[in-house]
Amino acid sequence: MIELTYFGHSTFLMGVNGKKILFDPFISPNSLAKEVAIDDLRPDYLLVSHGHEDHVADVERIAKNSGAMLVSNFEIVSWFQEKGIRNAHPLNHGGAVNFDFGRVKYVNAIHSSTMPDGASGGNPGGFVVESDAGTFYYAGDTALTYDMKLIADSFAIDFAVLPIGDNFTMGIEDAVKAADFVGTETIVGMHYDTFPYITIDKEAARQIARDAGKELIVLQLGESITL
Protein backbone atom coordinates (compact mmCIF):
# COMPACT_ATOMS: atom_id res chain seq x y z
CA MET A 1 0.00 0.00 0.00
CA ILE A 2 1.09 3.57 -0.71
CA GLU A 3 0.29 6.56 1.49
CA LEU A 4 -0.49 9.86 -0.24
CA THR A 5 -0.56 13.29 1.39
CA TYR A 6 -1.75 16.25 -0.69
CA PHE A 7 -0.10 19.67 -0.30
CA GLY A 8 -2.04 21.50 -3.00
CA HIS A 9 -1.84 21.97 -6.77
CA SER A 10 0.28 19.04 -8.00
CA THR A 11 2.32 18.46 -4.84
CA PHE A 12 2.03 15.01 -3.28
CA LEU A 13 4.12 13.26 -0.65
CA MET A 14 4.08 9.51 -1.27
CA GLY A 15 5.18 6.91 1.23
CA VAL A 16 6.61 3.91 -0.63
CA ASN A 17 8.44 1.09 1.15
CA GLY A 18 9.47 3.33 4.02
CA LYS A 19 10.74 6.15 1.80
CA LYS A 20 9.12 9.57 1.29
CA ILE A 21 8.82 10.85 -2.27
CA LEU A 22 7.71 14.45 -2.86
CA PHE A 23 6.38 15.36 -6.30
CA ASP A 24 6.51 18.84 -7.88
CA PRO A 25 6.77 21.01 -4.75
CA PHE A 26 4.84 24.26 -5.15
CA ILE A 27 3.92 25.27 -1.61
CA SER A 28 5.35 28.60 -0.45
CA PRO A 29 3.90 30.66 -3.38
CA ASN A 30 0.52 28.89 -3.15
CA SER A 31 -1.85 30.92 -1.00
CA LEU A 32 -4.03 27.82 -0.55
CA ALA A 33 -1.09 26.03 1.14
CA LYS A 34 -0.07 28.81 3.54
CA GLU A 35 -0.58 26.57 6.58
CA VAL A 36 1.87 23.92 5.37
CA ALA A 37 5.07 23.85 7.44
CA ILE A 38 7.35 23.51 4.43
CA ASP A 39 10.59 23.35 6.43
CA ASP A 40 9.27 20.34 8.34
CA LEU A 41 9.07 18.31 5.15
CA ARG A 42 11.90 15.79 4.97
CA PRO A 43 11.45 13.73 1.82
CA ASP A 44 14.04 11.20 0.71
CA TYR A 45 13.41 11.95 -2.97
CA LEU A 46 12.11 14.90 -5.00
CA LEU A 47 10.56 13.94 -8.34
CA VAL A 48 10.01 16.87 -10.69
CA SER A 49 7.98 16.46 -13.88
CA HIS A 50 8.85 19.72 -15.68
CA GLY A 51 10.30 23.17 -15.19
CA HIS A 52 7.36 25.52 -14.66
CA GLU A 53 7.45 27.54 -11.46
CA ASP A 54 4.23 25.97 -10.18
CA HIS A 55 6.12 22.65 -10.07
CA VAL A 56 9.64 23.64 -9.01
CA ALA A 57 9.21 26.68 -6.74
CA ASP A 58 10.31 24.92 -3.54
CA VAL A 59 12.72 22.34 -4.94
CA GLU A 60 15.90 24.15 -3.89
CA ARG A 61 14.65 24.99 -0.41
CA ILE A 62 13.40 21.48 0.35
CA ALA A 63 16.40 19.76 -1.22
CA LYS A 64 18.85 21.79 0.87
CA ASN A 65 16.82 21.34 4.06
CA SER A 66 16.32 17.60 3.65
CA GLY A 67 19.20 16.33 1.53
CA ALA A 68 16.63 14.62 -0.70
CA MET A 69 17.76 13.26 -4.04
CA LEU A 70 16.37 15.27 -6.96
CA VAL A 71 15.13 13.09 -9.84
CA SER A 72 14.11 14.81 -13.06
CA ASN A 73 15.16 15.26 -16.66
CA PHE A 74 18.72 16.24 -17.54
CA GLU A 75 18.00 19.94 -18.09
CA ILE A 76 16.17 20.41 -14.79
CA VAL A 77 18.79 18.49 -12.83
CA SER A 78 21.55 20.55 -14.45
CA TRP A 79 19.74 23.82 -13.63
CA PHE A 80 19.47 22.90 -9.96
CA GLN A 81 23.04 21.63 -9.83
CA GLU A 82 24.11 25.17 -10.69
CA LYS A 83 22.25 26.23 -7.54
CA GLY A 84 24.27 23.85 -5.42
CA ILE A 85 22.03 20.76 -5.47
CA ARG A 86 24.47 17.86 -5.74
CA ASN A 87 22.32 14.90 -4.72
CA ALA A 88 20.55 14.39 -8.04
CA HIS A 89 19.84 11.78 -10.69
CA PRO A 90 19.02 12.81 -14.29
CA LEU A 91 16.63 10.84 -16.49
CA ASN A 92 15.30 11.24 -19.98
CA HIS A 93 12.22 9.92 -21.73
CA GLY A 94 11.94 6.15 -21.76
CA GLY A 95 14.72 5.77 -19.19
CA ALA A 96 14.27 4.05 -15.85
CA VAL A 97 16.33 3.59 -12.73
CA ASN A 98 16.13 1.42 -9.61
CA PHE A 99 16.09 3.15 -6.24
CA ASP A 100 15.83 1.64 -2.77
CA PHE A 101 12.02 1.99 -2.76
CA GLY A 102 11.34 0.74 -6.31
CA ARG A 103 11.83 1.57 -9.98
CA VAL A 104 11.11 4.95 -11.59
CA LYS A 105 10.52 5.42 -15.32
CA TYR A 106 10.30 8.84 -16.98
CA VAL A 107 7.52 8.86 -19.58
CA ASN A 108 6.15 11.27 -22.15
CA ALA A 109 3.93 14.26 -21.43
CA ILE A 110 2.53 16.83 -23.84
CA HIS A 111 2.99 20.27 -22.33
CA SER A 112 5.70 22.96 -22.21
CA SER A 113 8.64 23.33 -19.85
CA THR A 114 10.54 26.53 -19.06
CA MET A 115 12.46 27.21 -15.87
CA PRO A 116 11.51 30.25 -13.75
CA ASP A 117 14.41 32.29 -15.20
CA GLY A 118 13.47 31.46 -18.80
CA ALA A 119 16.05 28.68 -19.28
CA SER A 120 15.01 25.50 -21.02
CA GLY A 121 13.41 22.89 -18.80
CA GLY A 122 13.85 20.23 -21.45
CA ASN A 123 10.84 18.19 -22.49
CA PRO A 124 8.11 17.66 -19.89
CA GLY A 125 7.40 14.20 -18.56
CA GLY A 126 5.62 12.06 -16.05
CA PHE A 127 6.69 9.17 -13.86
CA VAL A 128 5.69 5.54 -13.43
CA VAL A 129 6.74 4.33 -9.98
CA GLU A 130 6.82 0.56 -9.67
CA SER A 131 7.31 -1.18 -6.34
CA ASP A 132 6.11 -4.19 -4.37
CA ALA A 133 3.98 -1.73 -2.35
CA GLY A 134 2.06 -0.74 -5.50
CA THR A 135 2.54 0.84 -8.90
CA PHE A 136 1.25 4.26 -9.92
CA TYR A 137 1.45 6.82 -12.71
CA TYR A 138 2.10 10.47 -11.90
CA ALA A 139 1.30 12.24 -15.17
CA GLY A 140 2.63 15.72 -14.51
CA ASP A 141 1.05 18.42 -16.65
CA THR A 142 -0.10 16.84 -19.88
CA ALA A 143 -2.68 16.56 -22.58
CA LEU A 144 -4.25 13.22 -23.38
CA THR A 145 -1.92 11.18 -25.56
CA TYR A 146 -1.98 7.72 -27.11
CA ASP A 147 1.48 7.18 -25.60
CA MET A 148 -0.34 6.49 -22.34
CA LYS A 149 -1.48 3.16 -23.78
CA LEU A 150 2.14 2.02 -23.72
CA ILE A 151 2.07 2.32 -19.93
CA ALA A 152 -0.69 -0.30 -19.70
CA ASP A 153 1.37 -2.60 -21.92
CA SER A 154 4.24 -2.65 -19.41
CA PHE A 155 2.75 -1.94 -15.98
CA ALA A 156 -0.19 -2.91 -13.78
CA ILE A 157 -1.22 0.57 -12.63
CA ASP A 158 -3.02 0.68 -9.29
CA PHE A 159 -3.88 4.38 -9.53
CA ALA A 160 -3.06 7.39 -11.68
CA VAL A 161 -2.43 10.94 -10.48
CA LEU A 162 -3.84 13.02 -13.33
CA PRO A 163 -4.44 16.73 -13.99
CA ILE A 164 -8.14 17.60 -14.06
CA GLY A 165 -8.12 21.41 -14.12
CA ASP A 166 -8.48 21.82 -17.91
CA ASN A 167 -7.24 25.00 -19.71
CA PHE A 168 -3.50 24.26 -19.32
CA THR A 169 -3.81 20.46 -19.09
CA MET A 170 -6.37 17.71 -19.49
CA GLY A 171 -9.78 18.22 -17.99
CA ILE A 172 -11.78 15.48 -16.32
CA GLU A 173 -13.20 14.13 -19.57
CA ASP A 174 -9.74 13.45 -20.97
CA ALA A 175 -8.47 12.28 -17.58
CA VAL A 176 -11.12 9.55 -17.65
CA LYS A 177 -9.83 8.47 -21.05
CA ALA A 178 -6.26 8.60 -19.75
CA ALA A 179 -7.24 6.26 -16.91
CA ASP A 180 -8.62 3.85 -19.50
CA PHE A 181 -5.43 4.12 -21.54
CA VAL A 182 -3.16 3.29 -18.58
CA GLY A 183 -5.50 0.61 -17.27
CA THR A 184 -6.75 1.87 -13.92
CA GLU A 185 -10.12 2.62 -12.35
CA THR A 186 -8.73 5.04 -9.77
CA ILE A 187 -7.85 8.69 -10.52
CA VAL A 188 -6.26 11.03 -7.99
CA GLY A 189 -6.93 14.56 -9.21
CA MET A 190 -4.31 17.30 -9.36
CA HIS A 191 -3.65 20.70 -10.95
CA TYR A 192 -7.03 22.29 -10.20
CA ASP A 193 -8.43 25.27 -8.24
CA THR A 194 -5.06 26.95 -7.59
CA PHE A 195 -5.69 29.75 -10.12
CA PRO A 196 -8.92 31.11 -11.63
CA TYR A 197 -8.09 29.52 -14.99
CA ILE A 198 -8.24 26.02 -13.48
CA THR A 199 -11.12 26.33 -11.01
CA ILE A 200 -13.45 23.36 -11.39
CA ASP A 201 -16.73 21.99 -10.07
CA LYS A 202 -15.36 19.06 -8.09
CA GLU A 203 -18.66 17.27 -7.60
CA ALA A 204 -19.43 17.51 -11.31
CA ALA A 205 -15.99 16.06 -12.00
CA ARG A 206 -16.65 13.19 -9.61
CA GLN A 207 -19.92 12.47 -11.39
CA ILE A 208 -18.24 12.40 -14.81
CA ALA A 209 -15.78 9.88 -13.41
CA ARG A 210 -18.55 7.77 -11.85
CA ASP A 211 -20.49 7.77 -15.11
CA ALA A 212 -17.39 6.35 -16.78
CA GLY A 213 -16.96 3.67 -14.13
CA LYS A 214 -14.02 5.42 -12.47
CA GLU A 215 -13.36 6.73 -8.98
CA LEU A 216 -12.07 10.30 -8.80
CA ILE A 217 -10.33 11.09 -5.52
CA VAL A 218 -10.12 14.83 -4.81
CA LEU A 219 -8.17 15.37 -1.61
CA GLN A 220 -8.35 18.26 0.79
CA LEU A 221 -5.08 20.09 1.35
CA GLY A 222 -3.14 18.22 4.01
CA GLU A 223 -5.34 15.13 3.71
CA SER A 224 -3.70 11.69 3.65
CA ILE A 225 -5.05 8.44 2.25
CA THR A 226 -3.68 4.98 1.58
CA LEU A 227 -4.13 3.27 -1.78
TrEMBL record:
Record domain Metallo-beta-lactamase: where: 8-191
Keywords: Hydrolase
InterPro entries: Metallo-B-lactamas, RibonucZ/Hydroxyglut_hydro, UPF0173, UPF0173_UPF0282_UlaG_hydrolase
Keyword Heme in annotation: no
GO MF entry, a single one: hydrolase activity
SMART domains from the UniProt entry: Lactamase_B (SM00849)
Family: Belongs to the UPF0173 family.
HAMAP family: UPF0173
Entry protein name: UPF0173 metal-dependent hydrolase SAMN05192553_101566
